[in-house]
Sequence to fold (275 residues):
Amino acid sequence: MSTTKPKADPTGIQRGDYSNPKLSPALFFIGRLMNIPIQLAILTSSPFSNMFPRPPPPSGGAPILRHIPSSMAPFLSRILPLTASATTVTLTLTPYQAIITTMSAVLVAKHLIWIAYLRRERLTWQFAFFGTLPEWIFEGLENLLFTFAAVNPFWSPSLFYLAAAMHIPAVLLELTAEIQRKIFKDDPKNKGKLCTTGPWGLARHINYGCNIIYGFAYGMACGGIPAGIIFGGVYLLNFVFNAGPSIEEYCQERYREKFDAYCKKVPYKYIPWLF
Fold:
């Protein structure tokens, strides 16, 4: 089996380098976790709501978060629409806001599982930074767009629910594929082998394909099909012109004829039966 040197790009995963620094994974973990209150603040504050007569549909909602620690309530009340009684602190969201928050939280949970359990190679502080701040901005723009849903002719409830039905399964499929690959790689009998079964038998980079799908779905949920194309297109361009060629080159160097055989067996790179 041939070996390769780690990639020089400090903003990427250092492939082939299995050292395990503690600080950068911790920064990534904390940064991704912070995304949830940040996106909640954008969704619930509706910064431009004073320009329009209606909030994002539908109005009203139900308490979904109870028993917030009293020490946290004063801080959180500055950014979230909290109400308090003698025994309970609650956060009220519309059903649409609750679903979008769930979509965001599922993404965060996937990343936390990846950093704590699935990741094998070294993660730099640059990767931790660029893996958190752009996500805040990217999701923040989508959630800000959702605050215009009441006046957006491209947005509709049917598209919203279709997007949610696409988003969460795509995230779970990616997580399932990553867990399967870790189990395969952790088995000493598979040293130097490619994982080519399960989801990896459908597309060589099924994880990237899932990213494209849920990137499109999140955008469509917030702003309709045009937003889905724009935000999903960002994922697509990254994988087609950046991350995809990089991982293909790495696999070619590391596995050589095994990877050639895999490419013949599985011709689709990202999305099965499509491309």
